[in-house]
């Protein structure tokens, strides 16, 4: 079973498919790397390297007592990018809570090894659940797009938070188009 060991000795389970420029994917709470199987297969079929891992405490990764804050989770992503992948030109993709890890990695590690970042229905750090929605687009994607220089916002009108399941084919097509840019 492929694993990466973090600085604090937590073993993270890793799926690694394909070859070429790496695309590292972080799942949402309480999912696992398996939530990216269809997208990862499409990425690998497009001639890229698809890497998804189970966040600490989830799936096949270790379940330590601590380290569930965004700083530690961003450091775990750093272990994947710097030590496992050795990337200089990776794309990192975060779905839901994984988007918060992407954002924290970019600020905490200066985007080391990253060429592109994708946030899919992302929860950025410190968001709270409202009364009609888990991740309201006005306070998540629209604000993130406004604050990220050079970003492009693609809205899926009326779509639920679980885009990887409800709009799988469109998400795959949009991600592959972005990766070609």
Topology of helices and strands:
Layout: E1 3-5, E2 11-18, E3 22-26, H1 37-45, E4 49-53, H2 70-85, E5 90-95, H3 97-108, E6 114-120, H4 141-147, H5 163-166, H6 168-180
Parallel strand pairs: 3-4, 3-5, 5-6
Antiparallel strand pairs: 1-2, 2-4
Oligomeric state: single chain
Report the uncertain regions: none
Query: So what's the CATH class?
Result: Alpha Beta
CATH superfamily: Alpha/Beta hydrolase fold, catalytic domain
| Cα-to-Cα separation, first versus last residue | 33 Å
What name is given to the CATH topology? Answer: Rossmann fold
Averaged pLDDT? 93
Number of domains: 1
**Main sheet attributes: strand count, strand direction, barrel closure:** 6 strands, mixed
Estimated structural class: alpha/beta
> What fraction strand?
15-25%
Give the helix tally: 6
**Any idea what the shape is?**
globular
CATH structural architecture: 3-Layer(aba) Sandwich
The ordered H/E elements are: EEEHEHEHEHHH
Strand order of the largest sheet: 1-2-4-3-5-6
Count of distinct strands: 6
The level of helicity is: 25-40%
Radius of gyration: 15 Å
What does this structure look like?
34% of the residues lie in helices and 19% in strands. It is an alpha/beta fold and 181 residues long. It has a single domain, classed as Alpha/Beta hydrolase fold, catalytic domain (Rossmann fold). The chain has a six-stranded mixed sheet, sandwiched between helices.
């Amino acid at each position: 079973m492929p694993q990466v060991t973090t600085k604090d000795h937590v073993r993270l389970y890793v799926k690694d498919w394909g070859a070429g420029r790496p695309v590292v994917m972080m799942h949402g709470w309480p999912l696992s790397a398996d939530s990216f199987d269809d997208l990862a297969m499409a990425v690998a079929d497009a001639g890229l390297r698809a890497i998804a891992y189970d966040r600490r405490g989830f799936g096949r990764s270790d379940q330590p007592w601590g380290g569930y804050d965004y700083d530690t989770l961003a450091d775990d992503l750093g272990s994947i990018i710097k030590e496992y992948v050795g990337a200089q030109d990776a794309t990192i993709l975060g779905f839901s809570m994984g988007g918060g890890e992407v954002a924290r990695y970019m600020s905490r590690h200066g985007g080391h090894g990253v060429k592109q970042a994708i946030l899919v229905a992302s929860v950025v750090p410190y968001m709270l659940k409202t009364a009609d929605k888990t991740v309201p687009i006005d306070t998540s994607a629209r604000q993130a797009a406004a604050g990220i220089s050079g970003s492009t916002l693609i809205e899926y009108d009326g779509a639920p938070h679980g885009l990887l399941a409800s709009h799988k084919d469109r998400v795959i097509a949009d991600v592959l188009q972005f990766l070609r840019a």
